[in-house]
Specification:
The chain has about 110 residues and is of the alpha+beta class. Helices cover about 15% and strands about 35% of the residues.
Length: about 110
C-alpha cells in the first residue's frame, strides 16, 4: 500500500504527518527531513521511491528541512534523476509521514 497522504501546502503537510496513524502506532509520526529522504531514494535512476516498502510514484515530496522562513526543500525528479530544490511553503506537494521505531526481538514500539 502507498504511504503518501496526498497533496498539501507545507503547514497542512506537517499537521497531517503529526496526526498520522497506522494500527496501534498512533503517535510519533512526522515529516522526514531531506537527508532521510535522500537515504531511501534509489540512486540508480529508476523507481526513485517506487519500490517496497515505500511504493511512492510521486515525483514531488515535502521535507521538513527549511531553506529560510519562506521556503523549504522538496524532493523531486527530472527525467528520473533525483534532485532537491526549494519551493514556497504555499505550494502543494505530497506528504510522506515517517516514524522512528524501536525493535526489540520481533516487536516494534
Amino acid at each position: 500500500s502507498r504511504v503518501s497522504l496526498g497533496l498539501f501546502n507545507w503547514a497542512n503537510c506537517i499537521d497531517n504527518c503529526l496526526s498520522y496513524s497506522v494500527g496501534a502506532f498512533t503517535s510519533g509520526w512526522r515529516l522526514l527531513n531531506v537527508n532521510e529522504l535522500w537515504n531511501i531514494v534509489r540512486q540508480d535512476n529508476s523507481q526513485l521511491l517506487d519500490y517496497a516498502p515505500f511504493n511512492l510514484t510521486s515525483t514531488s515530496l515535502w521535507t521538513s528541512t527549511h531553506r529560510d522562513e519562506k521556503q523549504v526543500y522538496k524532493f523531486g525528479s527530472a527525467d528520473l534523476n533525483p534532485l532537491v530544490a526549494s519551493v514556497s511553503l504555499s505550494d502543494e506537494l505530497n506528504a510522506f509521514p515517517i516514524r522512528n521505531f524501536i525493535v526489540t526481538g520481533t516487536t516494534l514500539t
